[in-house]
Give the backbone structure.
Amino acid sequence: MKRAQRQQLVEIDERLTEEDLGDRALVHAVVQNEWYRAQMRRTHHRYVGSEAGALFLAGAATVLAALSAPAWITATVAGLVAFLAGLRRIVSWHDDWLAASEARAKATAEIALYRLVPSAERTPQRQQELVAAIDALVLAETRTWGRRRRDKVQTETAA
C-alpha cells in the first residue's frame, strides 16, 4: 500500500508546476482530488470484480450441477456465490464509487475555477476560499457516506 501511495504522490508532483507548488491551497485541493480519483478507481474495480465474480460463479454452479460434478465442488461454488451476495449487502462499492466520482467532479470544478484566476490575483482570501470549498466538499461527502452506512444498517436490521 505504501508503494501505491508513493506512486500517487509522484503522479501528483508531476502534474503540478513550480508555480502550483508555491500555492499551498492548490496543492491541498489537488491532493484531495487525487484521493477521490484513487478511491473512485478502487471502488469501481471492487464493484465490477464482485459483480462479475458473482455472475460467473452463479453460472458455473448451474453448469456444474448439470454436468453432475462432485457435490463438494458444486456446493463450494454455490457457497462462494452466497458469500459474494452477502458481501454486496455489507459493502456498497457501487454507491461508494458513484459518491467518489461526484466528489471528484466537484473538486475538479473548484480547481479549474481557481486556476482560471491569474496567479497575481490568487490572494490569501481566494486561497482560503478554495481550501474552504474543498474541505466543505470532503465534509459533505463524509457525512453522506456515514448516512448511507447508517441507513444500510437500519434497513438490514429492520428486515
Observations:
- The chain has one domain: 30-154.
- Residues 30-154 form one domain.
